[in-house]
Specification:
The chain is mainly beta and about 120 residues long. It is built from no helices and 11 strands. The strands form 2 sheets. Strands 2, 4, 5, 6, 9, 10 and 11 form a 7-stranded mixed beta sheet that branches. Strands 1-3-8-7 form a 4-stranded antiparallel beta sheet, with no helix packed on it. Strand 7 and strand 8 form a beta hairpin.
Length: about 120
């Protein structure tokens, strides 16, 4: 299984970005894809997750109402639409996947497949 993340960049506060995570090599539909982020000298924090089968979504409180996770099954891609970005959203964003789904979807150590990070920088 491979995950390829893209879509990061530099944006002004209040702006938007859409991150993409392409998943290849999966063998079943019972898995979860999540986005985490890590700012310099901070721990990797949960942002959002989606169950591939059924599409149930989970969001961190800090991004509710601003970030939306979604998927395109035909393209094997998970998206993170980020609106109303704030300087504190600046971080490296990682997508991750886990087979099978876990109720502890918000713990980074539960995921066994990771994509490379993509930098998101929000200027004030």
């Amino acid at each position: 299984v491979q995950l390829q993340a893209s879509g990061g960049g530099l944006v002004q506060a209040g702006g938007s970005l859409r991150l993409s995570c392409v998943i290849s090599g999966r063998s079943s539909n019972d898995f979860t894809v999540a986005w985490f982020r890590q700012a310099p000298e901070k721990e990797r924090d949960f942002v959002a997750a989606i169950k591939w089968s059924g599409g149930t979504r989970f969001n961190a409180e800090s991004v509710k109402g601003r970030f939306t996770i979604s998927k395109d099954s035909a393209k094997n891609t998970v998206y993170l639409q980020m609106n109303s970005l704030k300087p504190e959203d600046t971080a490296v964003y990682y997508c991750a996947a886990r087979w099978p789904h876990t109720v502890q979807y918000y713990y980074a150590h539960e995921y066994n497949h990771w994509g490379q990070g993509t930098q998101v920088t929000v200027s004030s």
